[in-house]
Amino acid sequence: MTLDMSTTGWRRRGSSIVFDRRSLDPLLNEGALVSMREALGWTRAWPTTPPGGGQTVLVGGLETFLEVLEPTQAEDFLKRRVSPFAQEFQARWDQRGLVFGFGVHARSFELTESDEEVLFIRQDKERVRLSRALWDGSATMNMIRLISEEQGKTLTVGYHVARIS
Fold it and tell me: Cα separation of 86 and 113, whole Å?
């Protein structure tokens, strides 16, 4: 069973997948946005401080990779490039949040019946095993659903893992 978080603690620690514009707006306004390509480039030469100087780094463009690569290639890309980047990020900047921002609707994400895995539904309706490829074993045991309340309804705005194992 996935736990819920309605606070902004995900901005200060761990890594998150966020697809709600209102949740991403403060990060955009802080100048925390970097491209996926730039972020992966850090694995060759890490900056001394996170861009924007805040507590969160927002990475945009991951969804493009997931859309243009074949689903198995996309999962491989997540496992071999993005997950190691996220682990290195948490080792270097443990008191900072890493957020992968998506510009797609919440319907582009599916939580499996057992609430253990988040799937990304591509435009061609193929599914990419997003959370398992990105967070590996941490996803099944430690994944938290990010929520917000709007007009008496609970909305899912993303998913978070406080620490990748």
Answer: 26
